[in-house]
From TrEMBL:
Biased composition (Basic and acidic residues): 36-46, 87-129, 157-166
The protein's name in its UniProt record: Troponin T, fast skeletal muscle
Functional summary from the UniProt entry: Troponin T is the tropomyosin-binding subunit of troponin, the thin filament regulatory complex which confers calcium-sensitivity to striated muscle actomyosin ATPase activity.
Biological processes per GO annotation: regulation of muscle contraction; sarcomere organization; skeletal muscle contraction
Classification via InterPro entries: TNNT, Troponin, Troponin_sf
Disordered, as annotated region: 1-46, 87-166
Organism of derivation: Chinchilla lanigera (Long-tailed chinchilla)
Family: Belongs to the troponin T family.
GO MF entry, a single one: troponin I binding
């Protein structure tokens, strides 16, 4: 739908005046072209030339159109090639990144396995050391218990011997019938016995100390 033009009355009058002035101007007289005498006008040839001209112009338009179309197709092919190239580059970059990530994960897994193996080896060595230490302690403890039992047996034997000696030496004193000289002799005998007992006690204590250190 074409737009409707609205003109004012003054504009309409102005147009009418210009049209009337054009009408009043004298028009040149047109005369038909003179055809040379003796020559025949070939209207078919003229028409043919016009058709050829029109065909040439049309062919030029068609060639221009196809040239533009060819250029567009070449640009489209180039664009597709750039897109494919860019897509291939992105795929290659993704492949490289995936390969690097795979290598990184493999390194992490190998490092983890190595640490776990070292930890397991260290724990096994620690357990072996503990077992050896406990075994050594057990043997030493058993030896210590045997020596302690032996010492207790020796102490018990020595104690029994001491009791026996003391029992033999403990005799009831019968001094009621003794004279003064006899009493002095008896006192000297008791003193010598006490001195000997103290000497035996000291020597026995020293002997026990040596056995303890041994």
């Amino acid at each position: 739908k074409q737009p409707t033009l609205t003109m004012s009355d003054e504009e309409v009058e102005h147009v009418e005046e210009e049209y009337e002035e054009e009408e009043e101007k004298p028009r040149p007289k047109l005369t038909a072209p003179k055809i040379p005498e003796g020559e025949k006008v070939d209207f078919d040839d003229i028409q043919k030339k016009r058709q050829n001209k029109d065909l040439m112009e049309l062919q030029a338009l068609i060639d221009s159109h196809f040239e533009a179309r060819k250029k567009e197709e070449e640009e489209l092919v180039a664009l597709k090639e750039r897109i494919e190239k860019r897509r291939a580059e992105r795929a290659e970059q993704q492949r490289i990144r995936a390969e690097k990530e795979r290598e990184r994960q493999n390194r992490l897994a190998e490092e983890k396995a190595r640490r776990e193996e070292e930890d397991a080896k260290r724990r096994a060595e620690d357990d072996l050391k503990k077992k050896k230490a406990l075994s050594s302690m057990g043997a030493n403890y058993s030896s210590y218990l045997a020596k302690a039992d032996q010492k207790r047996g020796k102490k018990q034997t020595a104690r029994e011997m001491k009791k026996k000696i003391l029992a033999e030496r403990r005799k009831p004193l019968n001094i009621d019938h003794l004279s003064d000289d006899k009493l002095r002799d008896k006192a000297k005998e008791l003193w010598d016995t006490l001195y000997q007992l103290e000497t035996d006690k000291f020597e026995f204590g020293e002997k026990l100390k040596r056995q303890k250190y041994d």
